Amino acid sequence: QVQLVESGGGLVQAGGSLRLSCVASGRIFGFNRMGWYRQAPGKQRELVATMTSGGSTTYADSVKGRFTISRDNAGNTVYLQMNSLKPEDTAVYYCNFIGIGNYWGQGTQVTVSS
Residue 99's pLDDT is what? Predict the structure, then answer.
């Protein structure tokens, strides 16, 4: 089992920045991928960014150049630095861990006002 605890969401004006954090605990050894997905009201959950334990990253086209994903040296924490936020970035952001199993955090609300 893997537990994920997210933090860092909130309300920010357009053009502002936020940093999300997600700490994983439990069976996190071996190759894995951590990342962020988001779901806006009435829309499907979509990929934002992911990073493997080997350092490979993937970004949604809509966030390239504005968001940066990173992980700490221990590999159990993933961050999402979000700059130049837009109202359309408003959503619940979910942390995801894929290793021996697929796990989700509880979600953290990000609201960007215009």
Answer: 93
